[in-house]
Amino acid sequence: MSVPLTLLGLLARGEPTHGYDLKRDYDSHFANGKPLPYGQVYSTLGRLARDGKVVGGEAEPGDGPDRKRYAITDAGRVEVMSWLSQTVEPEPHLQTVLFAKVVLALMLGEDAAGYLDAQRAAHLQRMRQLTELKRTGPMVDALLADYGLFHLEADLRWIELTSARLSALAQAVAEDK
Amino acid sequence: MTTKLLLDARDVHRSFGATQALRGASVTVERGELLAIMGPSGSGKSTLLHCLAGIYKPDQGEVWFDGTRVDTLGEAKRTELRRDAFGFVFQFGQLVPELTALDNVALPLLLAKMPRRRAYAQAAPWLERLGLSEHGTHRSGELSGGQAQRVALARALVHKPRVLFADEPTGALDTLTGENVMNLLVTAAREEGTTVVLVTHDARVAAYADREIVVRDGRALTTPSSAVA
Questions:
Q1: Do B214 and A120 touch (CB under 8 A)?
Q2: Is A143 part of the contact surface with chain B (CB cutoff 8 Å)?
Q3: By the CB < 8 Å criterion, does A167 face chain B?
Q4: Is A117 within 8 Å of B228 when comparing Cβ atoms?
Q5: Which of B207, B208, B229 sits opposite A87 (nearest CB)?
Q6: Is residue A47 within 8 Å of A4, Cβ to Cβ?
Q7: What is the pTM of this model?
Q8: Using one digit for the tens of pLDDT, what is the confidence trace for B30-74?
Q9: A94 touches chain B (CB under 8 A)
Q10: A85 and chain B: CB distance < 8 Å anywhere?
Q11: CB-side exposure of A57: number of CA atoms within 13 Å?
Q12: Which residues pair with B211 in a beta bridge?
């Protein structure tokens, strides 16, 4: 999963935010048992500031490594919205990326259902290619295609279930704000 | 002028008692196309197939087949249309148990008043084509699930229908047998130029189609195309 884009997505909610609060929000929604190290948060924010995607405010008095609030720039917002609107190349083991995009879309009031529909279409398109390969190719290709098809099918089942649970997920995300 | 469009359902509504199965579903199918209708249980996908095939009359909306409005036809005309222009495969083969496999395949031709000898001569190659030549004299109780479904497929295609409607055709089969049936269905449909409308909840089955639509809450969603990141 892309940490920079996910942090940008969290900043796209609106208010300038301390690195500490970004880390807390990231860990609560996306860490999946692997909290983001502070060092990575601040180095990522530094790179995003260098690239003009975020701006850091004046340092505030107090202890701690960094007392700045970070705000997303127009360029950063364009980048995160573009990322959210694009489907992911269908391949096995995408759950963390798909999950991050759905949760961020819900946080930002974007069209999470539309994203899932587009991703389903992209997955099915890839499954069609593999099915055709299976139908017309040698047995070895068919076995490899089967491996891909079963994994893509697992992703699709997750997409279907998430689509069905979108209202409940939106509520859970809203309550965590 | 011949248009590409063969089937066209426009804003179709259909209720069963207080349950609204379709709430304004629209879908088009082109000649020779293999379309998958997907969706969760109870979404209305089978009802949409039944409306497209003239089995159900919509409460509201229109269904067109090759320039003819189907939903306003009387029962006799719709029966004739289904018998002559459409073929059907359902989840369970629904073979006539008293008849042999060959009798079952010949049945649509006999019902269309084709002479018996000609009907059987036309039916027999279909059993061979679907790998069933040794099972022609077997009754449905003597066939495996996959064999019975292949007989049902032969019966659906023997009269060279314009459209094959298949409702969960592999739903009762294991993965490998289901794949075999889908391969035969797609190969035969392509060779015959038959348009196929396939209802399935199974993405692996839908992947045999040229295109899919998703039915959700009684409405058909055209799948969006999108850039891939």
A1: yes
A2: no
A3: no
A4: no
A5: B229
A6: yes
A7: 0.80
A8: 999 999 999 888 889 999 999 999 999 999 999 999 999 999 999
A9: no
A10: yes
A11: 13
A12: B35
CA dihedral B26, B31, B32, B34 (to 10 degrees): 0
pLDDT tens figures, A80-117: 999 988 887 776 666 678 888 899 999 898 999 988 98
Give the tokens for residue B7. 């089937």
Quote the tokens at residue B159: 């009269």
d(CA B164, CA B206): 15
Cβ pair A100, A83 in contact under 8 A = no
A51 part of contact set with chain B, CB < 8 Å: no
For range B204-218, the mean pLDDT? 92
Which of A1, A82, A86, A117 is most worth mutating to test chain B (most B CB atoms within 10 A of its CB)?
A117
Instruction: Assign B217 a pLDDT band (cuts: 50, 70, 90).
Output: confident
Mark the ranges of chain A whose per-residue pLDDT is less than 70: 1, 32, 61-66, 91-95, 176-177
Q: Which of residues 37-66 of B touch A (CB under 8 A)?
A: 40
The pLDDT of residue A62: 67
Residues of B in contact with A118 (CB under 8 A): 223-226
CB half-sphere exposure, B222, CA atoms < 13 A: 7
Assigned token pair, A135: 């139908």
| B1 Cβ under 8 Å from any chain A Cβ | no
Question: Which residues of chain B have a CB within 8 Å of the CB of A119?
Answer: 226
Q: A131, B208: Cβ pair inside 8 Å?
A: yes
What is the dihedral angle through the alpha carbons of B54, B109, B162, B51, rounded to the nearest 10 degrees?
10
Q: B158 falls in which pLDDT band (50, 70, 90)?
A: very high
- Kindly indicate the confidence band of residue B167, based on its pLDDT and cuts at 50, 70 and 90: very high
Do B37 and B48 contact (CB within 8 A), yes or no? Answer: yes
